[in-house]
Amino acid sequence: MKKHTNEGHDFSMQDEMRRAFAMLSGKWKLEIMWLLHQRIHRFGELRKAIPGITQHMLSAQLRELEADGLLLRTVFAEVPPRVEYEMTEKARGLGPTMEALAAWWGEYGSTIPARPSMRGRKQKDLSAVKASRQSK
């Protein structure tokens, strides 16, 4: 793999990709980015659009994406306060990657085994209820 120098340090492309993947890793970040790729969203809209995400986790993921310069948070001085989230120009550079992933899914998605759509605490609670019903 080709090496290149960055501020006196040698980094391979694998190291650089690891850094890129780390920015987008997280259970919900890609889903958030996909939604923001479509349009500007308010916090409540994002929460409703992502089944199973908690308010705390959504806030944490949004803060991380904002700190990495991938989204812009705009607070409007209104009562009640309104907050909107949108992708930055840097994040819009990921658009072709997102479109390629959507095209890949369109071609091969039907060949992937289905998984339960619910995630997080709600899925665990539902599984526990089902297990207790089956044991009776």
From TrEMBL:
Region Disordered: start-end pairs: 116-136
Keyword presence, RNA-binding: no
Coiled coil: none
Pfam families linked to this entry: HxlR
HTH hxlR-type domain: residues covered: 15-113
GO molecular function (one): DNA binding
InterPro entries documented for this protein: HTH_HxlR, WH-like_DNA-bd_sf, WH_DNA-bd_sf
Keywords, alphabetical: DNA-binding, Transcription, Transcription regulation
Domain of life the protein comes from: Bacteria
Full protein name: HxlR family transcriptional regulator
The species this protein was found in: Rhizobium azibense
Taxon lineage: Bacteria, Pseudomonadati, Pseudomonadota, Alphaproteobacteria, Hyphomicrobiales
